[in-house]
Amino acid sequence: MAGLYLHIPFCKQKCNYCDFHFSISLRNKEALIHAIKKELILRKNEVNEPIQTIYLGGGTPSILTITELKGIFESINANYSIAENAEISLEANPDDLSESYLKGLKKLGINRLSIGVQSFFNADLKFMNRAHTSQEAIRAIKDAQDSGIENITIDLIYGIPGLSLANWQRNLDAFLTLNIPHLSSYALTVEPKTVLAHQINSKKIKPLDDELAKAHFDILLRYMKEYDYLHYELSNFAKEGFLSQHNTSYWQGKSYLGIGPSAHSYNQKTRSWNVANNARYIKSLKEGIVPNKVEYLTAAMRYNEYIMTGLRTMWGIDLDTIKKDFGEKYSSYFTKNAQKYLQKGTLQFVEKNRLVLRSEKFFLVDGVIADLFWVE
């Protein structure tokens, strides 16, 4: 079992672009933590090897107190075997990371922080309805470094309306000045049923500018290459030795167990997902039932998953793997449909049988993936 993911579905307030499952009401927090502990017990037999990575995501895991987190980790350690050098990550908002809280996290064994900065400009943060300021973000990063947690990543969003090319470069300059070893950077997207979607549909703000996002992305690539950050996944850049082990296991098709409402699990044969409703999740676990649905993966689904994850990474697609794992039919299909992208230079061989998307073409990845999917 490569990884253990725990979804903590609580936030202080709602960011206007977010469509993840969460609640801004903390009324059921204690009951939900109890339900998470119960699910950890009920599903322990699904794991028969040491866990290499633990990732607390959300939502906002840093909304939990150190005592609450300690209780969750006690349940994990009581029911699972954890590898000696496991990567243990926690997503956090800057305004939650006080010096005492950071010391508590380190004492719990958390050795990697993902800090949701999003921008170093207060105007952008206000536009996205973030709960912190730029000053709080910088303070939180420095305090985390001073606490002895070296493995830190931050999120930065590009394509924000009104974010000039010059200010996007200042965002990246601020990141580099802080000497952070990992960056996750995403284009702002409009997801259905979000505040951002409503603002655009009601013409309160203009639609997002794809050309601006592409210009931001090109600057991002240039900066990361110049400062020796490895572009190992579409949205992720790292110094040597600081790749996210947990997320890399997703992209390389390894098994993981997801705990909590809306959490997904994958074991290479099936995919399952928990109900995305806190009250129903709590009620079901009180009755000793894991509220999830299970999907058995066909060869076509597994092939499409391999294409989708592989082309987003620097490891790309291995032609021998396609033939060995999926058969000649899928191998021939992929080879035929990949030809036009090889001719255009969008795809390239980096080894005899391994194809990758050229880094400067990563902005086109969704279209390429869709074209290479197997359609029944």
Termini separation: 31 Å
**Mean pLDDT across all residues, rounded?**
96
- Largest beta sheet, briefly? 9 strands, mixed
> Helix and strand succession?
EHEHEHEHHEHEHHEEHEEEHEHEHHEEH
The level-1 CATH class of the largest domain: Alpha Beta
Please list the strands of the largest sheet in the order they lie side by side.
7-8-6-5-4-3-2-1-9
Structural class by helix and strand composition:
alpha/beta
Domain module tally: 2
User: Mind telling me the C-alpha Rg?
Assistant: 21 Å
Shape descriptor: globular
Classified in CATH, the superfamily of the largest domain is Aldolase class I
| Unreliably modeled segments | none
CATH fold topology of the largest domain: TIM Barrel
How much helicity do the residues have? Answer: 40-55%
CATH architecture of the largest domain: Alpha-Beta Barrel
Tell me how many strands there are.
15
Please give the count of helices. Answer: 14
Which band does the percent of strand residues land in?
15-25%
Structure description:
With about 375 residues, this protein is an alpha/beta fold. It is about 40% helix and about 20% strand. The chain has helices at about 30-40, 65-80, 100-110, 120-130, 135-145, 165-175, 195-200, 210-225, 245-250, 280-285, 300-310, 320-325, 330-345, 365-370, and strands at about 5-10, 50-60, 80-90, 110-120, 150-160, 180-185, 230-235, 235-240, 255-260, 265, 270-275, 290-295, 315-320, 345-350, 355. It has a nine-stranded mixed beta sheet, with helices on both faces. It has a three-stranded antiparallel beta sheet with strand order 10-11-12, with no helix packed on it. The longest helix is centred in the middle third of the chain and has 17 residues, at about 210-225. It is globular. The mean pLDDT is about 95.
